[in-house]
Specification:
67 residues, three-stranded parallel sheet, 3 helices, 21% strand
C-alpha cells in the first residue's frame, strides 16, 4: 500500500515513514501542500496522512482539492 505523508515537521515525517516502512508500506513524505498535490498525481497513494497546519495551505483545503 502506498502512503503519502504530508507534514512540515521533518521529525514526524521520518518517524511515521519509518514505522510504516517497517510494516512494508511504501511511503513518500512531503512538507507542503504544493508538493502533496503534485505527488498525488505521480505517486498515486492509497492513503494520505495529512497535517492540518501547513505553511502554504491548510490541510482542509488540500483535502477538498483531493476529492
Amino acid at each position: 500500500m502506498k502512503v503519502l505523508i504530508v507534514d512540515d515537521n521533518i521529525a514526524i515525517q521520518e518517524i511515521v515513514s519509518e514505522i510504516l516502512s517497517a510494516e512494508n508500506y511504501e511511503t513518500l513524505a512531503v512538507g507542503n501542500a504544493k508538493d502533496a498535490l503534485d505527488y498525488v498525481r505521480s505517486f498515486r497513494p492509497e492513503l494520505v496522512l495529512l497535517d492540518i497546519n501547513l505553511p502554504d495551505m491548510d490541510g482542509w483545503s488540500i483535502l477538498r482539492r483531493l476529492k
